[in-house]
Amino acid sequence: MSDVAKDKAARLLKKRGSVSSLSSHEVKAKETTGKTKDSMSTVSYIDEPGQQDDNPRPAVQMENTFQLGPAKRFPVATVNNILKDVLTSYLQEEKYEAELCRQMTKTISEVIKARVKDLMIPRYKIIVLINIGQLNEQNMRIGSRCLWDPTNDTFSSYTFKNTSLFAVANVYAAYFE
Asked: What are the tens digits of pLDDT across the range 61-92?
């Protein structure tokens, strides 16, 4: 440490009234009888905000990392193909059974979510909803609501039917800023 830095540290610490601010040879002179003679003390300090160094630091340019819009848009057509492929492969030959369909909704939603995440679309939150019901000459309306940014958020939907059941798969992609 240079003499200028030592003097500056000593002045700063004397101002604060710190005993440990003395240099190592001054510490040895003030030691009490119970301590060893070879112990050393080190001092570390931070300049106070009002003090300036003699050598000013160069200004650092920071890049803006906040992104207002997606770099890559959510591929709705690709996700529609994933929905069609997964629903067809899992439900083509199935008959409606309540317990089986309950498990199938969980399995199908996890498979779809994994395949959509494999597309690696950054900054989108993926929500997958699967509804499976018995096809028995009845009507059904399915609705959903959420806060939506129409410029960045989107969804994909596919409906599947066979002889005994229907399935509706929805994938919502909400852009996360």
From this structure: 777 767 778 888 899 999 999 999 999 999 99
